[in-house]
Design goal:
The chain is 42% helix and 11% strand. It has 353 residues and is of the alpha/beta class. The protein has 3 domains: 8-196, 3-Layer(aba) Sandwich (Rossmann fold), CATH 3.40.50; 199-276, Orthogonal Bundle (Helicase, Ruva Protein, domain 3), CATH 1.10.8; 291-339, Arc Repressor Mutant, subunit A. The strands form 4 sheets. Strands 1-3-6-9-2-10 form a 6-stranded mixed sheet. Strands 4-5 form a two-stranded antiparallel sheet. Strands 7-8 form a two-stranded antiparallel sheet. A hairpin with an 8-residue loop joins strand 7 (147-148) and strand 8 (157-158). The protein is elongated, with a radius of gyration of 24 Å.
Amino acid sequence: MSLSGKAGSEVKRVDFERPVNVVEKALIGQHPAIMKLRALIEKVAPSDVTILISGESGVGKEVVARAIHSMSQRHGLPFVPVNCAAIPRDLLESEMFGHERGAFTGASGTRQGLFTAAGGGTILLDEIGAMPMELQAKLLRVLEDGEVRPVGSDRWTRVDVRVIAASNTELAAAVRKGAFREDLFYRLQVVPIVVPPMRERRSDIPLLVDHFLECIQARTPAQKITVTREAMVQLWSYDWPGNVRELENMVERLAILCDDSTIDTRILPPALTSKPRPAVIEIPASLPAGGVNLQSLVRELEGRLINDALKQTAGNKQAAAKLLGLKRTTFAAKLRRSGVIAPGAADDDKDDD
């Protein structure tokens, strides 16, 4: 479909993605969950299958969608992100499907919608759970028949576009409450992708911090900014409720505030330096009638204790092993199994040999 006839205001709403492998660049990390996510993206990107991306705010759902588009056959065509919650309900249908002149008050001319603007590319419907029920039926028609009908028109128009939806809420719960169409839910969730929150991939924080600092320095060439081990421990220990977006904003803030190109604990905000309440692991006093998963319980307890020991020793593995009464080699083996990575631990990796 040709895009040459678009009005200038509509072209501005479209992003053209170049055929680059953004998976490694955008999804920084070596945590098993992120590596599985990258593998899944590479597997589903070449097809036109509909995808539902779930995850908390700030985890990078749009990043995942852009990565899928960039690795697909549609990579040279538009990528159109639409935030369904940010557009007023009475304008959402017109924005998505377009309108004819005189369709409503203020419709002084014909305007194409975002599905048409996508022009053979990909459209991301973010916060899909906010879409009104009456509009969900029309979206289902697009997915099943590849047709849209502009507001005020009696004609259906063919569109060629890949649909990716994203949600920071549990759509299955909305279906149970009658707030989201069940048939649309299953049509969107042909391939479900869940993006983990930052607190579940804590070992990637040092890698992300380094990446964000490199991006900042590329924009504003200056002396290389470093992070002290103590500051990295605090960044690593924080739960980041705003996820990757919050971490990125924090790194940018610290890069501006730091003295002598060094980020240390003195410039960290109180939220990052206040001592967190220790997590409680519920250990049954006796074996429940239904039994327990002993391996899972032991693994979780080991992981929490290893994590705490590394926090108390600023990431020093030898000192952490001593706190737990373990030999260095035993501690190193348990550390690898736990998936926990000590911030700045590369400095004392030789202690594991």
